Amino acid sequence: MNTVVCIKRVPDSEARIKVAPDGQSIDPTGLKFIVSPYDEFAVEAALRLKEQSGGGETVALTLGDAAAGEQVRSVLAMGADRAIRLDGEGSPDGLSVARALASELRELGPDLILFGMKAMDDDQQQVGPMVAELLGLPCVTVVAELEAEDGKVLCHREIEGGTEVVELELPAVVTVTKGPYEPRYPSLKGIMAAKKKPLEEKPAEVPASRIKVRRYSEPPARPEGKIVGEGPDAVPELVRLLRDEAKVL
Amino acid sequence: MSRILAIAEQRDGALKRISQEVVTAARQVADGIGGEVDVVVVGAAGIGAAAKALGNYGADRVLAVEHEALGAYSPESYTKAIADQVQAGDYFAVLFPATAVGRDLAPRVAARLDVPLASEATALEIEGEELVIRRPVYAGKAFVDLTLDAAPRIVSVRANIFRAHESPREATVETVAAEPQPSKARVREVHAGAGDKPDVAEATVVVAGGRGLKDPENWKILEDLADALGDGVALGASRAVVDAGWRPHAEQVGQTGKVVSPQLYFAVALSGAIQHLAGMRTATTIVAVNKDPDAPIFKVADYGIVGDAFEVIPRLADEIRNARG
Ligand SMILES: Cc1cc2nc3c(=O)[nH]c(=O)nc-3n(C[C@H](O)[C@H](O)[C@H](O)COP(=O)(O)OP(=O)(O)OC[C@H]3O[C@@H](n4cnc5c(N)ncnc54)[C@H](O)[C@@H]3O)c2cc1C
Ligand SMILES: Nc1ncnc2c1ncn2[C@@H]1O[C@H](COP(=O)(O)O)[C@@H](O)[C@H]1O
User: What pTM does this model have?
Assistant: First the structure.
């Protein structure tokens, strides 16, 4: 099975996000960057599918500037066979990103296209199903675990009040959430091997964003809370506050 | 072009509560531009009659796409049904609920109509002629205000932010014919989860536990607290307990779990790591119980008790039962 995994470079989940003084962007000073965590889950799912189905190649695809090469290498080190970086800036408009990725994916024509459920920077949760729509492919979102079955994949997903298994005909698009498997850590051997794996770079065609950013802002600080007391003796007072002050009981 | 379209969501023929919130948000935008609110609901026969009640929250007209094959969500059929209604209506804006279904559907409808989508809005304002949308980014560590340079403006709204607000009127109901679409995805098995608790992302009260509870058996004290708080209370969990296999991922709150905005959030024996806070810092009232007075959760909590959860939580359940009578 040939799989393409779309990955994005995003700030580390520990990062403190500061808005630039003009409010037009996020201040990049001191930020560490990682592969978006859900995209790592997608890479892990792709590698397991390949191991299970015993063949095909796993390609990592990203849209990003030269700095994103670092994240692409780390996915190669995890075990992807080759990578493509569409050189350009991402966009706050998921549909522009989806169009740029879709034109490359149309050429690649893989059996399966994996996305993270959402990118951990703009949190739009939209690029995957948009690509499916643009390519006219079926799509299952928020999948925790994938299994190969001839000409199909089985998608295990959480639904309200339980889980379900969806049988999906290939070619198809799947967006991946956190599943039962921790993404593998690149081994030293993997890191060495990654240096020799093909990384193709080509200009991206990203349509102009139709999402116009007015300003970024930091969330309002939560009002100063109070420690009601210590141990179970503080409970009656807590209940009184919840009832009379917060009015939530 | 001054109509707003609200997408209502149903499950098993009953409207979901978030439909009232989406209509409330749509009413607010419509009032800002002097417009009217249409609602589209897709479902089996009779769903239009159920959606008429959305007139209470400001819907002027309900368009019910009814078909026996559309009782349960199907991406292909629902995308077509809703995209057709959006195209027929010349809308200023279309609001989806940011639920599991809405998050699947809204991007498809937007891509089919070739318009951008702003996901997970937490505020909508009319400024001049424009709709300014506020949405969280970087897992709630920042917000962005944006406008959409397209018509209609497609937005999904986060649960529990636009609290349902009555603005009663008599909604008309029109039934629209549907054409179910073939699908290459087929549900093979459904496994019911344990218990009957609502989804943590949609509940108004959440009781969440962390690694400090030490054993999955000990969740019974949280379940008892949830019961004491009444119906519709969801359980939540930190990633540490999900990774340990104590609780299902569906309950995880945070950056790689659900983002929740309940009215009341209990954080019990969890430290309040930055990735956890990202998922719950917009709760209206946060209560923390932790034996470490320096736990970061106390920095965001409105009320805290420093103490042992095994002593505090059972007492809390009792006192809440007493208080609620
Ligand atoms: C990329 C990434 C994504 C992540 N996503 C998430 C996410 O979505 N959600 C999430 O929660 N975490 C997430 N994490 C993990 C996060 O960093 C923390 O490791 C995790 O939240 C810790 O869980 P915890 O608070 O249950 O455990 P701990 O940090 O171990 O805290 C346990 C707490 O229990 C208290 N305690 C112990 N015994 C008692 C007692 N008897 N009574 C009262 N209090 C007691 C302790 O004082 C302590 O504060 C993520 C991490 C990464 C790197
Ligand atoms: N610039 C990008 N390059 C490659 N993949 C991307 C990019 N942006 C988003 N994606 C993919 O789309 C998913 C969802 O992103 P989003 O809709 O922005 O939350 C991500 O998890 C990635 O798999």
Answer: 0.95
